Amino acid sequence: MRDLASSPFEAAVILGGRRLGLHEVCAVARGTPLTLDSSTAFRQRIRRGAEVLTDCIAAGTPVYGVTTGYGDSCTVTVPPEVLQQLPVHLVRYHGCGLGAYFDEPTSIAILVTRLNSLAMGFSGVRLEVLTQLETMIQQRVAPRIPEEGSVGASGDLTPLSYVAAAMMGEREVLHQGKLGPAAEALRAAGLTPITLMPKEGLALMNGTAVMTALACLGWERAEYLMRLATRITAMVAIALGSNPKHFASGLFAVKPHSGQQQVAARIFADMGATNQENPLRIQDRYSIRCAPHVIGVLADALGWMQRDIENELNSANDNPIVDPESGEIYHGGHFYGGHIAFVADSLKNAVANIADLLDRQLALLVDTRFNNGLPSNLSGASEARASLNHGFKAVQIAVSAWTAEALKLTMPASVFSRSTECHNQDKVSMGTIAARDALRVLTLVEQVAAACLAAAAQAMEIRRRRGNRPPRHMPAAMLAMLDEVLGVCAYVEEDRPLDAELRQLCAAISARRWTLYE
Fold it and tell me: How far apart are alpha carbons 458 and 455 in whole angstroms?
């Protein structure tokens, strides 16, 4: 087993002057060190962008959010003598977020995504802004960011205001596991509150950093769930005595979705399929023989999802855009999170289908009409105690509840655009809501997977103990995982509460503790 949550990569992630991968965002969130590019060329580029804005202010050139008000107030000119106060007001009046707070790793991921965008050099911020964010990440100074309040254009304004405020020494942060005032945490980290220049509040807040960070974290969880669902399907198929030829390469050669083919090949190998003969049924029910077709959708979608997430991650997505080479200033809408919204809506759909698949597999395992000789509800009780014991009956009910909730949340958020802010923001992405929904769906499906993993291990152990069509010729990895799962959720002979053990399995899934198909 491995524990990625407590074993960050050894090499530091270098940010700036290169394309950042979503895996690197997730690694830094877990504790991998991060450092800014130290090259002279990178630092000069950042300085040139800030100088462009300084020159514009000196020349009296109108620049949105720098010499004007925000949003629909872009027609209001701000007098030069109060320009310095403009970003402070922006940060403060957006301090209206509500709901639960993002945890520390998620807040750190948000800092990474915001820093990477600003480090492209098209935002007109000073190097001091970047180094302040860099040190906050290094010292794990995580702003306390409420989850609710963003429509996903003009970017994640309200949640990102908590990042800007923390940099100014305002509001609260988590530091070394403790919640406290931002000013105290900055001081402990060797930092002083930053004084934002006219564009810098807007540059910090007017972008897609929150939804993109959530998408990075969600993608990694979904990719692991895809692998885990494949392994669980193999375990269930073995326990049911299923026909291994449902997963044969010759069958899948004629339907060439590559992810689907990979899932089928993995199940076939897990079953030790070349050594299994005489299946109980020539043709299994859909939740078994069509499992590669369900899991394969997610497997194939992950590729384009990663492409779109990483394109957004490596974009300049605030407004206005400042070209440090030409000095041109472009007013546009790169804060719009449409690609992330579509990824998140699609991700929760594909992942919820995994829950539905596993829920149906568990329904087969617990029902004596369909489980090919396994005891009712997978109870491991002796014959004399069978009438008292109900095994996984309640677990199956709970799985049904988690699955239903996951399916309910698949309604796409991106189609619920709301016109807001005096109809300036009259078409918005809802990307942050979609990403939050996706993370909730992932949590529910991880719970389904944990329960189904325990049930599949119980079913396989029943076969092994009773000599009733025992699993034969399984690869060592399958046998090892069976024993590891039973080490967490022991064989259920007499009824007992299983919630603590299921939570342990959820934690193991969250940590991606099992190496699957690498």
Answer: 5
